[in-house]
Each structure stands twice: as structure tokens, then as C-alpha cells.
């Protein structure tokens, strides 16, 4: 159907659908890196490492992104690298559909009528609002994804924390209540605001800045270059809150009195991490985070733009 024949509603539905499909593909491709990132973020958790970066590195089980992936593969096989895939895909189908699909309508509500000359602050605000809107819906899937990915090789006699996605849903609901499924909501929303306020606006702004200076023309090459820039920026800005989110979500709750939880809230996790591990602790897993978000951003926005073009929808 040509663009002129499509109603604004049907175009909006397609935009949300394309955003979800594109980001699900990116998530599938980068899941092994995401698993490794989660393991690195909780490796040596709260051990006294401040001021001893070299010693802390030697004590880690997952020493770097490539070694970490090899270690997981040796311990758990290919299935270990794809732990948490089901909730990850469900998360992208909802979260990314909402946050990326809502970015342009929110931007227009803020008065952005000319995509080529929209002030950057309006893009940042639109991204932040879209990220917050999408994140609240998917906290349970994100929580389960983190817990499934965090579980490494089991010792003889140990049992899996969860047998799979649905077992995790039932077990968490039964043992921790509905609130348990929304544990880590605060850092999840904060991360989503930071990620979307960085990723989508940086892609949007980089792309139109390049176009405005006639350095490149609209097309796949421009989409990849713009996504590479956005991928680095989002990894840099989101890594600290990503570490905190992972730790708050993954902490053991079952059978532990509330007053003895490792982390009371986001701020408590931030303070304890900084005291024990210093600033380096907040950037644990930065390389795999970048190696995930970089390719994920490139794949997602490349496909998002491709789907739009094939459907006759103007580019972002």
C-alpha cells in the first residue's frame, strides 16, 4: 500500500511493529554478549576491590568479554549463551515497540515539525518520556531475563534457580508476591530513560547533522554510521545504572528477611558498590555492554529504517 493511501493510524501501527521486530532481531543476535555482560557485572560483587583494579581483575571468573563467552560456552554449552532469550524477546516486543515507536509522536507533541532542524533538547526529552513509558510495562520480563542469565555453572547437587521463563514467573509470584516481579523498577525506569534519551535522539541527531552538512545521503551507510555513534554514547551513559539494575534484580530474596537484603534500593546499591569497588565497579561489564549495545543499535535501526522504506514510510 502506498504511503498516500495509508491512514495515520495504520502507519503508526506499522511503526510500532517495525520497532519491535527490529529490536527483537538485535536482541537475538547479541544475547550471548548480554549473558556475558550480566555475569561480569555480578562477578566479585561487593568484594573489596577499590584501588586494586589489577587484583580485582585477576580474581574474576569471567575475565573479559571474549574469555567470558568462551568460559560460559565451556561450562554450559551454546544454551548457556542463550539463557534468558525468551524474556529478552518478549521484553523487546513490548518495551522497544513502545519506546521507539512513541519517540516520533512525542517529539511532534513537543513541537518538532521539521525533522532536519529539531533542537536536540526536544529529542532528548522525547526519548526520555518514551523510555519511561515503555519500561514500566516490562519490568517482570527484564527481572526474569537477568536472573536466568546470571545463573552460571552449577555445582554437583545444586538445583537451577528456575527451570525456565514460566517457572520463574510462578515461583517469583508465589515466593515474593506481585511486588517481587517488579523488583528493580526504579533502576529499570532510570536506565530506560537514560538509554532511550541517549540512543534514539543521538541516532536521530547524528543522522540529520550528517545530512545537513551533505556528508552522506539517506541510505544504509548513513544508518549504520549514525547507529555506531549512538551505540557508543548509550553504552557510556547507561553502564553505571545497568550494573545497579542487574545487581538489585539478581539479589537473593527467597528465605531472607527483608532487613537483611543485600540492597535496600537503588541508592543503597550505588553506595555499597562505590565503597567496595570504587568507580570501576559501576563500569564492570562496560566492554560487553558496548559490544552488545553497539551491534544491537546498528542492527535495530538498520532494520527499522529498512522496514519503513519497504512500507513507504518516510525515514526517522
TrEMBL record:
Q: Name one Pfam family in it.
A: Mito_carr
Does the record bear Heme in its keywords?
A: no
Q: Where is the signal peptide?
A: none
Q: Does the keyword Transmembrane apply?
A: yes
Q: Which key words are in the record?
A: Membrane, Mitochondrion, Mitochondrion inner membrane, Repeat, Transmembrane, Transmembrane helix, Transport
Q: Which cellular component, as a GO term, is one annotated location? A: mitochondrial inner membrane
Top-level taxon in the UniProt lineage: Eukaryota
Q: Where are the Solcar repeats?
A: 10-109, 118-209, 218-310
List locations, semicolon-separated.
Mitochondrion inner membrane
Task: Tell me a GO biological process for this protein.
Answer: transmembrane transport
The protein's matches in Gene3D superfamilies, at most eight in alphabetical order, are given as:
Mitochondrial carrier domain
What topology does the record note for this protein and the membrane?
A: Multi-pass membrane protein
Q: Which family does it belong to?
A: Belongs to the mitochondrial carrier (TC 2.A.29) family.
Identification of the protein by name = Mitochondrial substrate carrier family protein ucpB
| Organism of origin | Holothuria leucospilota
Amino acid at each position: 500500500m502506498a504511503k498516500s493511501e495509508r491512514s495515520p493510524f495504520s502507519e503508526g501501527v506499522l511503526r510500532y511493529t517495525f520497532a519491535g521486530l527490529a529490536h527483537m532481531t538485535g536482541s537475538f543476535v547479541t544475547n550471548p554478549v548480554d549473558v556475558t555482560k550480566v555475569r561480569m557485572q555480578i562477578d566479585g560483587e561487593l568484594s573489596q576491590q577499590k584501588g586494586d583494579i589489577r587484583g580485582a581483575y585477576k580474581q574474576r571468573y569471567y575475565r573479559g568479554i571474549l574469555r567470558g563467552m568462551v568460559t560460559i560456552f565451556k561450562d554450559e554449552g551454546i544454551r548457556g549463551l542463550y539463557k534468558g532469550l525468551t524474556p529478552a524477546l518478549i521484553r523487546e516486543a513490548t518495551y522497544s515497540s513502545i519506546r521507539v515507536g512513541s519517540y516520533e509522536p512525542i517529539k511532534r507533541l513537543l513541537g518538532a515539525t521539521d525533522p532536519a532542524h529539531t533542537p536536540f533538547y526536544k529529542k532528548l526529552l522525547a526519548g526520555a518520556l518514551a523510555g519511561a513509558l515503555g519500561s514500566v510495562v516490562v519490568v517482570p520480563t527484564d527481572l526474569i531475563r537477568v536472573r536466568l542469565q546470571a545463573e552460571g555453572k552449577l555445582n554437583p547437587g545444586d538445583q537451577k534457580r528456575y527451570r525456565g521463563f514460566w517457572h520463574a514467573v510462578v515461583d517469583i509470584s508465589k515466593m515474593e508476591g506481585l511486588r517481587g516481579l517488579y523488583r528493580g523498577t526504579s533502576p529499570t525506569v532510570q536506565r530506560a530513560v537514560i538509554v532511550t534519551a541517549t540512543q534514539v535522539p543521538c541516532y536521530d541527531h547524528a543522522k540529520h547533522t550528517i545530512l545537513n552538512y551533505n556528508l552522506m545521503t539517506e541510505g544504509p551507510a548513513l544508518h549504520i554510521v549514525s547507529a555506531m555513534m549512538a551505540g557508543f554514547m548509550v553504552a557510556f551513559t547507561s553502564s553505571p545504572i545497568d550494573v545497579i539494575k542487574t545487581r538489585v534484580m539478581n539479589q537473593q530474596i527467597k528465605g531472607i528477611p527483608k532487613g537483611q537484603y543485600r540492597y535496600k534500593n537503588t541508592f543503597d546499591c550505588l553506595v555499597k558498590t562505590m565503597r567496595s569497588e570504587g568507580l570501576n565497579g559501576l563500569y564492570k561489564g562496560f566492554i560487553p555492554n558496548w559490544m552488545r549495545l553497539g551491534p544491537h543499535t546498528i542492527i535495530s535501526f538498520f532494520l527499522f529504517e529498512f522496514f519503513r522504506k519497504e512500507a513507504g514510510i518516510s525515514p526517522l
